[in-house]
Amino acid sequence: MGHLKLEILCLVVGSVVALLALNIDSALANTGSNADEEGGPVFVKEPPSKVDFSNSTGAEIPCQSRGTPQPEIIWLRGDGTAVGDVPGLRQVLASGALVFPPFRAEDYRQEVHSATYICLARNSIGTIHSRDVHVRAVVTQVYDTHGDQEYIIKGNSATIRCKIPSFIADYLDVVSWHDSDGNVYKLDNRGVFEDGKFVVLPSGELHIKDVRPEDGFKEYRCQTKHRLTGETRLSASAGKLVITDPQGSTAPRLSGDTQISGFARMGMKGSTFGLICPSQSFPPGIFKWYKFTDGSSRQPVQLDDRLKQLGGTLIIREAKVEDSGKYLCVVSNSVGEESVETVLTVTAPLAATVEPAVQTVDFGRPATFTCHYQGSPVKNITWMKNGKRLPQTEAVIRIDAVRREDRGMFQCFVRNDQDSAQSTAELKLGGRFDPPRLTFKFREEVLQPGPKVSLKCKATGNPSPEIVWELDSKKVTNADRVQVGQFVGENGEVVSHVNITNVHSNDGGVYRCTAISKVGSATHTGRLNIHGLPHVKSMDKAQVVAGSGMVKTCPVAGYPIDAVIWEKDNRVLPINRRQSVFPNGTLVIDNVQRNMDQGTYTCVARNAQGYTSRGNLEVQVMVFPRVVSFTFGQEPLEAGTHASLQCSVDQGDLPMSITWSFHGVELSSQMGISTVKIGKRTNLLTIDSVAASHMGNYTCQATNAVGSANYTAELTVHVPPRWIVEPTDRAFAQGSDAKIECKSDGFPKPSVAWKKAAGDGPMDYRDLKGSAPGMRVEDGNLVISAIPKQAEGYYLCEANNGIGAGLSAVIYISVQAPPQFEIKFRNQTARKGEPAVLQCEAKGEKPIGILWSRDGKRLDPKPDPRYTIREEILSNGVLSDLSVKRSERTDSALFTCVATNAFGSDETSLNLIVQEPPEVPFGLKVLDKSGRSVQLQWSESFSGNSPITRFYIEYKMSKSDWNSGKDRVLVPGSQTMASVYNLRPATTYHLRLVAENEVGTSEASQSVTIITAEEAPSGPPTGIAVEPVDQHTLKVTWKPPLREEWNGDIMGYYVGYKLASSDKPYLFETVEFSREVGKEHHLMISNLKTYTEYSVVVQAFNRIGPGPMSKEVAQHTAEGKPDHAPQDISCTTLTSQSIRVSWTSPPLASANGVIKGYKVIFGPASSWYDEKTKEIKATPSSEIILHGLKKYTNYNMTILAYTNGGDGIPSTAVSCHTEQDVPGPPTAVKASVMSGDAILLSWQPPSQPNGVVTQYTVYQRTVEPKESEATSQKIPSFQTTYEISGLKRKERYEFWVTAHTAIGEGQPSKSATTSPSNKVPAKIASFAEKIVATHRDEVKLPCQAVGVPAPEIKWKVKGQMLTQSNRLRVLPDGSLLIKEVTRKDAGDYACKAENSNGHDTIMHTLVVQAPPQPPSISLAGATGTAITVRLKSPSDSAPLHGLTIHYKQDFGEWEATQIPPNMSEYTLEGLNCGTRYQIYATSYNSIGTGEASDILNTRTKGQKPGVPSAHKFIEVSQNSVTLHLSSWDDGGCPMLYFVVEYKARHQSDGWTMVSNSVKPSGNYVVLDLSPATWYQLRVTAHNNVGFTQAEFEFATLTLNGNQVGPARTNDNGRGLLLEVFPWLPEWVDYNMIVAGCAMIVIIVVGLAVICIAVSRRNRGPESFRLRDEGLYAQPDMRGMTLKREFRDELGYIAPPNRKLPPVPGSNYSTCDRHKKGMNHPTWNGRRPAAATGVPHTYEELANGGGGIYYDDHPPVPPHAHSDDSSLYSKPPNGVPGQDEEICPYATFHLLGFREEMDPSKGSNGLTLPHGSTTLPPPGHGHHRGGSQSAPRGSNTTRYGRGPVGSGVVSSVAGGGTVGPNGIINPPNHVFSPEYDDPANIEDEYGYNSPNRRGSLGRRSMGSMRTVPIPESPSPPPPPPRPSDSPNSTPSHSQMNQSNDSKESNELSEAECDRDPLIRNRNSVSGGAPGNMSTEEMRRLIENRNQNEAHSIPNGLTPYDTVNV
Fold this sequence. Notes:
Structural class: mainly beta
Helix content: under 10%
Number of strands: 141
Radius of gyration: 61 Å
Strand content: 35-45%
């Protein structure tokens, strides 16, 4: 219906347009314009694709085009709607420009300022669109940029980003960076800055390479520039680097979101790009960049001047489109590898060109436009024609035959997500055919009847058009007064006229001239109006098809016509929605229906005078026929079955014909098809026997006068296959081409398949695939090119189409050929010692002869009986077998079999390979090893003539056996190098190799032994749980990782935490490892946000580094109180006793938990600060209605939210007033007699006025002698007394009063009765009241009295008569006036009125409200940063509003904070630690602030920093020392900073300042130290309380990572002596004292030895007697003697004038042991102390050198009371020398220095890690006992011996017993393990050999400690030698390379300078050559292999060193 209305509207406005068109055409005709000069629109200035502008500047977008005629410019929105002007915001100029003026921020409209626009240009030729113009206005906003904070590991490259708000990020560019030193790093014109260390990337990041600690002290600010406004500004905050020291080796780790998604970068061609690879690791990683090509393969990026790599960043200058792609950054170090991908998209501006730009094509000829485009990327291509979208999406658009409507403007658009471009082209019709065009058109005219009228039209075109005239849609023909003429003018124009003579009114109407040719038409319509009466011309019958639309214009003549209407059935149309009548007389009916619209229509024309004319129109509605659908069925029919179709027509006008056609051809009875007509609307088609020829489309067509309709059904017939050509047997010569036909037909078309029999018989047919080369099937035929012999056999051809059983035929194809071997050469294997059979089968025409040869020589089996030949005749050839008995290695040879027949010969070769298992692999060696893998290499042995298929690397732990504990690694046989993975770190493995081929496996090779290195833990801690402790603390608990995942010894844990919603890195805290088995570790994380979810991870670390993090565990801190009050509080008064209160929740971020509900606190505003008057109601919703309120009362109310953590902050109080109500009764009424006829009535206002009292009503009535009706009197509200007169004395009256409000009258008061009297006693009309006055105000106490005579008024104040003054005076009305009321005026005031007739008294109570009394304040508690005070508020008449606490620190300013009045305790937080504070409090109420309390002087807790133990604080390496700042005790106050100074020990001048502002967190490294040098370190720690200064001493490591010995002091032990004997005077020569004491000890000991020796010569057990060998007796051995042959083992009892043997216990075996060849294992001083859990001990130097140390009691090493056999290197299986190292130094004692044996003097002058009055704890590395003995359990035999001696000892000193075998059993009381000299270590040194004597009598002084002998203490350790550091801790590198021992092999002279006698004895007993010279012995020692050593973990002595 819509399009019909549109046509009518066009007709309506046609008359108006016609005149304009006629004028225009006339002008064109007069100017003679040529069509060739016309041109379509083309953009001269096309708008850009993107326009961004600031609201302060505005923008103008130009759009200009050219064309003929000049195009019109129209702006469109992106949806195609036209754009109009928006005042002040958008305007389209006449020039075509779209203007956006500057605007205010509040005027921003998204549909205007952020939209897509299109510029449209159009003229009569066509229409074009511009590219999409994306307009975005940017409203100026306040913004700040910020520098980022980057956490980086020292030595890595850091990237600091400039944080820009997202709303401005698209318009800001980072142009430079500025550091705090004034340096500026500015981008150059190529978009990058580089100066070596600092690089500013094109994307704005600042890249800092090789970060050092000094970089962390700088601040970096970014400078940005606004692209739209040009504004530049520095960032509001500076970026910083937080530099951390590496914690062991760390694999590369990508930072931030890089770990998940990598990067994506996009930019324009020619720009500069920086592809970053943000990674951290230690050691710093190596970066490599790759680019992916062909989707998957990657190639290294080739660097040049354009592509440079700066650190990990790849810089691409002048980027090309070819640079687009996916880049991969790989960063690796010695620990691991990480990678990140970056996708780079380089875009190029889009451009498009359409060729040809103008194309002229003749009518009917083809046309082609091609769109050439440039730029990248191109997302899609679209075409438009005259502004309308075409469906084509290719770059070429083709028109096969150009038609008239094809001419116009074509546009090609190319687009991507950011850009678009377009190009235009014009298609013109060629000169051969030119569509008709009217060059002259007649004009509309209004004429009077009578004159002549001529209408003319001119037209041009090729071919020449014909012009046809119509009047009211009827063709105009020649008549009496009408002539139609047409001729061709000289210029080829066709001129046509309609001439009318003597024109009548009936000649008026709508005339139309139409120029028609075969290439088009042109039409002009105009109306000719002739004055006259209305006349409706006759109308022909209209036939309309049902369902279509009808348009009919009433043919009206005459002029003027006032109205034209249509009628039907005497009803004026329209009468329904389908009908429309237009003013010009056009009737439109949509969707015509026969039953409603068929009939007679009348057109009525009327003029203004009322004259009408009518004309009828007969409308016949005709119905098209409609054929009912039909089908032959869902399934195809089988051939020979019956089929039928019934064609029925359910609607359509009769008569009607029904016909059938087959494939468009009318049916013929010859086809076996018959049709039968059934009635007028049905026809039946039948097929008796369906055949293949009947398949096709059957169409039933029904035709009537309106038209025709048809329906088609398809008949499908299934026909089984049948042979066309059936195949038969064939024979072919070998090598010829063979073709066998096999054809069939049927429906569906049968498929033909060929198969070949698998065997010799006609069965088991299989597909031809692989049967023979060149065999194929073509169109059902079998084709074999160059047919081979193998193609011979049975073949099956099958034809099948699924109908029936199908067809098949079997044929035999024979091939005639010479002998042939299918395989010309093959290898055959045989196992050595087993029989072998070689077969050759020759196929071909028989007979066939066979000959064998071996390596080219004829094989004759007779000479060698191991060979046998046998032949067998086969159906298709001959089979010959050559058998070999018991194959040998020599049988490996080439055997040839030759076959011959009549057609030729052939041969085949068989290579016999005799195989055997491979030989044992050899040369197995270790190439490389790590913590989890080892790389092996070996040499391949003889393979046994069978390729080695695999090698097995067998490996096991050293404790396992090869049978049950081994694992295998399979290695391909082609490799001789492989790695074994999945090993356990720090584990000893044995590995061997086995080779395997198909025959068997070899023997195993010799095994190699390796020890894997330690690694970082491979598993996370287990059992991680996080529980909230309070609002700011989480407790994290966990257990160690699984034991197999430790990969070493766990040193501790890193506990990381962060906000769960944050993408920032974790903050880590370190927790030491607890060695208690199964103990759960925990950490309290404090200072967290309230009710905030945190993510917690835990990772374990060992010496190598940290292991993997655990899975994140998320947990919330405990809920807290909401920080904000509810918002948007509003209250609405509902009634006089109810109020509705509503609010909104506080911000979610401030809830600090889950809000459980809200509490509404409300109370009257007048007593708001009186807590007793407040009420609290709780509700879970955000609205509540408060009921039961006081009437007409102003209520204050505040709301707070509460959580499980408590009540939140209450909101600011809001007020609401309840509504008024009727008041309550007046409180009291008095009736006072004034005279005989008057009474004064007084009353008090209602206690509950419930509103504003507007008036009172006084009621009175007579009650005696008789009751009367009450009368009333209205009294103003301000009056509370009323004098009633005119009363009678003898009558009694009753009075009462009511109060009124705006609501109404209230309840009556109590009544008062009285009678007038002439006797009037004094009476007070006023009422006793409680009067509340404000401090310093004026108050009036009423006392109105009546009486006759007038009463006297007297006042008493607090029981005393009033003395009037200026401040207190009685007013004339009796009231008492008090001025400037003070607190002292409060009390009772009595007023007494008295006259001669009586008296009356009232009592007022005056309450004075004054500022409150001072509160009391006391201390409740204090912490480091807070003080809690206890407050007690005074009670007062006026309720307190609150308290104010004032506080300040010493020399500080006063600060104040206010608290509620009901708070009894308050905590002042955020105070300085350890600082004194002054505190006082004041109270305030509605009157004011009271006096202050006493000042409380107190202080926060805290003290100066505490000094840590040196071993926890200092960690040294070769060139630096690491200070663990966290080991300092902060004294309860946070550390502020440290001052670090150092100097060399020998340096006498001042200290070197390292830094005076070291941050207190983490570690600090002092660099640039010299190796192997002693230093003194001074550290000053500062906190708020003060500072503590401490000095330390340390030595750096040597270049080899070893420790240096203690530096010698020059006091020669004087300090030690003075420490023990401080009372010695300065003049005493201590050298003489020491010498004298030594001499005395020597004499005493010598005498004792001689006495004991003499006394035992003839007494005591035989084994204890002295022998002739010259035994030396030990003092105090209580009868025990010693063989002289063992004297060298004792270590401190030697012959006179001889040096003692070296002290065992250093890192090397002694020289004596080498001379003896025993190589006794020694204590291993290099075992890492951390392995046993004991930290290194570092002694701090005393300030005065007096031996005072901060760490007085270092922990006792754990091995001091337990079995520590693991601390000693012991030869496996008793084989000496495998795990030993050689000690190059020895320490000696001079015989006679027995004072060293005194425990009380043993530590004098020495700095030992234990008390100065006790012996060193067992196990100390420098103890002689500790170094010379092995540990013993408490229940093991302590000493053993060989064969039983001659005597049996039953007991020994100390309670031990000796068994019958000579072994001493320990006493009942068991002491901790002690240490003896080597002579007593039988199991270690081999003294339990059967050839050795018992050890009785050979105990040293140290060994006697198990047997208490007070007289003989054990000796202290000797002074250590330089570089003798058994307690040294291996450096970090030594941890990873523990096998690299570089200790010195130098021997001391004392070790080897032994007398020959001793050496000979040692050599006899020890088995080593005794005649070695010193040089020989030295060379022997130097050639010893030294294995890894271990340190005993017992702390550090003062001369030890610590390394990192």
